[in-house]
């Protein structure tokens, strides 16, 4: 039989004659977990390895979930899932803040979902070793009478267990997926479900019949429930292709206000790193190698250490997020040079060493643990009372995941201090203030949730006053959206056409040459006349959508040269819609024609471009090819073709009418003031 080892997460085979137990085969080691007694800790199957003696005895395990009373919101979440399943829905998503007990919820959900005929088994999918082990522990505690298997690495499940917890990398390797009979499964659970549109997940869903079904009525397939703290993507891939309904959402702000998570103090520190030349990767975030080169400098690393010493030296357990291995190494050495006992873990750290260091950090044996890419998801270290963000990011999801590492409640902490080292904000970076709807450049120090909310309310009031003042002065007639070209008393239409200030916001978010054309709209044009447009959605206020327009062949005799536009993305997050459109553009357009840093854009404008632009300029102010770059000229032409001139003309007409009305009123007022009439005076 297998017995859980308190030393790390290793297993020992214990048999009277030293033989492998009957639940294994000669070629594959089964990872079936059995609960021995209520007092014994649960077994967890991983690749067999020697135990690692810890420096101190491990504390006793927490009580099994079966003996834990669910929190009110946890029960609400389970009821929401069950009600949707009863209504016939099959593919559901649950959005819960980090530290809310996602594993507890989906563990308790297993027995609440009824079997359908012979379909009584459950599969849990996770993408990291720690998540697999954590889910297996919870299941072993909650269901002592059920067989729990693990499919991960060298450990092979039988395919017949009541509950199988699988690493997504392992279950999709070779023919390992084939042993899982879809007709035997009632439930497929996906942890950290924002990864679910990855190809390996899609392969598993295809195997279980959970893809490409328009109507689930009468279809016998297992239910799919995906759980995550960040049910959104930053790379343009739509979760809606595999999840049909988000049935429950609980935000971390609500959780903190209700004392389910610890309070958080925020401090932002501006660093001098230049990120303007750091490219954006396929996932929409900074490219790692280039980011490391910009961030991993002596000046910035020294500032990180000095900031921690000034703001958090008294904290017990600080988790530091770095860019890459080189950054981790340098910062670790800097901490140690200052007499701080700092350790690190990375994806390259051997599993047994990583487990030992994490356990030692969890026990409070050293104050600072640095990492890169290890603790962004699914890490349960509740004693963390300081999170130091030494790496900038463009991803709101990553920012929330990193901060979430310190939000769990713990008896020895009152709050968690989040220190955000913020780089140049003109590069599209997100920072902790953005999570509260504040300007990313807002600098705060030791601001708790209440202060951040109050600050947001003050900033919103200031914006409202500024907007009202601007309306009175009639400085703009356009809806003010991030990066919008506003019509601000331009002297002429060619001044407006040449104004590219509205492009900067979106180009900080995208590597492509989007052009602001006013009214909150942005256009990306290919070399063949096809184009994408991002605009405010007409479905609901505060939402955006991206649409694609394809030019029809010349022989198509229709009024419009373009076919019916196709909506490719829609949502509340402007940044996410931009990255969805960029992902689509990467396949639809040639890279050289849309990339903002292409060399051809820096060359002089062509004569054809200049001739076109001069049609809209006075003869005495005609342009020459040497007056502007080819990219600048192309952007100006895009503005003309997409209606900037027409909107300017309408704006000018409205302004002229308003001016004449005001002049007539003033003239009449002056006449009335000088006119004396015989007769009774009005009281």
UniProtKB/TrEMBL annotation:
Pfam families: Helicase_C, ResIII. Residues 19-68, 649-683 are annotated as: Disordered. It comes from the Eukaryota. GO terms for molecular function: ATP binding; double-stranded DNA helicase activity; forked DNA-dependent helicase activity; hydrolase activity; Y-form DNA binding. Keywords: ATP-binding, Helicase, Hydrolase, Nucleotide-binding. Residues 304-478 form the Helicase C-terminal domain. The keyword Hydrolase applies. Residues 83-249 form the Helicase ATP-binding domain. One of its GO terms (cellular component) is mitochondrial matrix. InterPro entries: Helicase/UvrB_N, Helicase_ATP-bd, Helicase_C-like, Helicase_Restrict-Modif_Enz, P-loop_NTPase. Residues 39-66 have a biased composition (Pro residues). PROSITE patterns: HELICASE_ATP_BIND_1, HELICASE_CTER. GO terms for biological process: mitochondrial DNA metabolic process; mitochondrial translational elongation. The keyword Transcription does not apply. This is Similar to DEAD/DEAH box helicase. It comes from Leptosphaeria maculans (strain JN3 / isolate v23.1.3 / race Av1-4-5-6-7-8) (Blackleg fungus).
